Amino acid sequence: MARLLYVEASPRKGRSHSITVAEAFIEAYAAAHPGDTVDRLDLWNADLPRFDGAMLDAKYAILHGQAPSTAEQAAWGEVEAVAERFKSADKYLFSVPMWNFGLPYVVKHYIDIVTQPGLTFAFDPASGYSGLVSGPAVAIYASGGAYHAGSGAEAFDLQKPAFEGWLGFVGLTDVERLTVAPTLGAADDVTATVAAAVARARELAARF
Ligand SMILES: Cc1cc2nc3c(=O)[nH]c(=O)nc-3n(C[C@H](O)[C@H](O)[C@H](O)COP(=O)(O)O)c2cc1C
Predict the structure, then answer these.
(1) What long-range pairs does 62-68 form, CB within 8 A, spacing at least 24?
(2) Residue 50 is part of a domain; what is its CATH number?
(3) Whose CA is nearest to atom 17 of ligand 1?
(4) Which listed residue, of 90, 131, 132, 208, carries a Cα 20 to 30 Å from 189's Cα?
(5) How far is the CA of 104 from the centre of ligand 1 (A)?
(6) What is the rounded CA–CA span in Å between residue 144 and residue 142?
């Protein structure tokens, strides 16, 4: 029995195109893998700990083997719990809107929390960095505009390179990309774009 972690990053819920496609994926996945579980993490309702100065004090007190306070240990325990939920999954599904050419800030917040030495990546002076997370991943990206090869707008797309650069850094290098774009345009065109992405999501999920 595998656990699929689904990380949702749009706050638009019923109006979100990335969520529509992700829900089609999950429905097809559940039908094809009835024994598996789907762990849903909605980043807009996740109550993630602040990654602020106090948290960094806790991080470095622990990393440097200094005596962390009780409060620092408790704070770092929250980070470890979020990172453990992430790294212990067997498979990964992400739905990610484009905001200002990049990622919504809740995604960056999550990345800042889970990307920790010894938890999700390792460093060795001889061999360099290595990711500690493994498993196949599907990333569903929605954007108002289109940024595909040949669109002329490729250079503006900081969403997919940033997200997949991070996935690779923590070890998730087996990534299928599913794009829902453009989601701004004539209603019929958007409907067709979403329908094509839903069909591809269902097909991917059945063999994931
Ligand atoms: C705050 C915000 C910023 C956005 N910035 C961009 C952008 O830079 N480029 C773009 O193509 N679309 C942009 N969009 C449009 C969204 O990418 C588009 O609506 C997409 O469908 C959002 O995903 P969702 O439908 O899953 O919420 C932005 C939307 C919002 C709400």
Answers:
(1) 63/117
(2) 3.40.50.360
(3) 143
(4) 208
(5) 9
(6) 7
Considering its fold, how many domains does the chain have in total?
1
The three-state secondary structure class of 164 is helix
Percent of the chain with pLDDT strictly greater than 70: 100
Q: What does the CA dihedral 120, 141, 44, 80 come to, rounded to 10 degrees?
A: 0
Q: From ligand 1's centre to the CA of 96, what distance in Å?
A: 10
Indicate the helix (H) or strand (E) that contains 70.
helix 70-87
Amino acid at 149: A
pLDDT at 12: 98
* Per-residue pLDDT reduced to its tens digit, 137-158: 999 999 999 999 999 999 999 9
Average pLDDT of the residues of the chain: 97
> Domain residues for 100?
3-206
| pLDDT tens, position by position, 17-72 | 999 999 999 999 999 999 999 999 999 999 999 999 999 999 999 999 999 999 99
Helix and strand numbers, DSSP H then E, in the chain = 6, 7
